[in-house]
Every structure is written in C-alpha cells, then in structure tokens.
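Hey L., structure's done. Input below.
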Amino acid sequence: MMYRPPVNELEEKVGNRYLLVSVVAKRAHQIMEEYENCSDNQALVEAINEVYNDELIIIAQ
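Output:
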C-alpha cells in the first residue's frame, strides 16, 4: 500500500491548489538537480512528503 497524503490537507498547509502545485513542482525540480539518479516520480513524492511533514517553509510573494 502506498502512502498518499490527502490533497485537501496539503492544500490547507499551503493555502490554495495553485500554490501547492507550484511549490511541489519547483521543489521536485530542485530534488532532481541535487540527485542525478532520482526519477521524476521519486522527486515528486519527496516534494509532496516535505510539504505534508512541514519540512518546507513557503513564503508567498
């Protein structure tokens, strides 16, 4: 069984869905640049988990 945080909980942590998608995409790109052997899916899962576990500080400009 794969662990997936609920989208509505992720959305509450960030503020809205647009910002959630932007934050996760940007962080996933950063993860892929840091780790050469990281697949797209692994980077995306890691970015989502970082948002869910409050490991990212999100500053909206």
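Residues 12 and 37 are 32 Å apart (CA to CA). The mean pLDDT is 89.

-- N.
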